[in-house]
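pipeline stage [seq->struct] | target=Succinate dehydrogenase / fumarate reductase cytochrome b subunit | organism=Chryseobacterium rhizoplanae | residues=220
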Amino acid sequence: MAGLTSSTIGRKYAMALSALFLLIFLILHLTTNLLSVLNKDAFNTASDFMGYNPFVQFLMQPILGFAVIFHFIMGFVLEIKNNKARPVKYAANNAAVNSSWMSRNMIISGAVILAFLALHLYDFWLHEINYKYVEGLTPDAERFWPELHEKFADLWRVALYVISFVLLGLHLAHGFQSSFQSIGARHPKYTPVIKAFGKWYSILIPAGFIIVAVFHFITQ
C-alpha cells in the first residue's frame, strides 16, 4: 500500500479502485433502501440480514469504512499536491472552457458529501451500535422500516438529504469516468459506453435516494 500511494499516479490508481468499490456499494445500498418504498416486509427482512450477518458486519462493514476514509484522504492529498504543483492557476488558463466546474471543484463536493456522511452515520449507524451493543436490546426484525420512516419526518432533514444527493450526483458525473481513466480503461470503442453509463449512473443513483427520502416524508 505504501508503494502504491508513494507517487501521484499510484495515488490516483488507488483512489480510483476505492471509488469503484464505493460505486458498487451505492448500488447495493440503494437497492435495499428502495425496498422500503416497494415492500415494507422485504425491507425489514433485508435490513435484518444486513444488520446481523457476521460477514456483513465484521468484514464488509470495516472494509467499507476503510474505503470511504481512504478515498476522501486520497482526494484531499491529491488536491493539495496538485495545487502546489500548479504554477499557473486555472483562471489564467480559461478553466471554464478547458474543464467543467465540477471537475475543478471535486474537493468541495467531496467535503460536503463527507459532512453528509457524518449526519448519515449519526442517524443510522450510531443508532445501530447503541441498539445492539450498548443497550443490548433484543433483535427485532420489524423495527427497521419504522426507524427509517421516522428519520424523514422533518422537512429540514429531508432537504439536507436531497441537497447532499444532488451534490453526490454532480460528484459522480465527473468521478465515474475519471475512475475508469485512472485505471487505464480508455479505448475509442469503450470510452463512449463508460461515459454514457456514468452519466445515467450519476442521475439514477442520487434520484433513487431522493425518492426514498421524499416518499417517507410525504407518507408520514
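stage status: PASS
auto-comment: DSSP finds nine helices and no strands in the chain. The radius of gyration is 19 Å.
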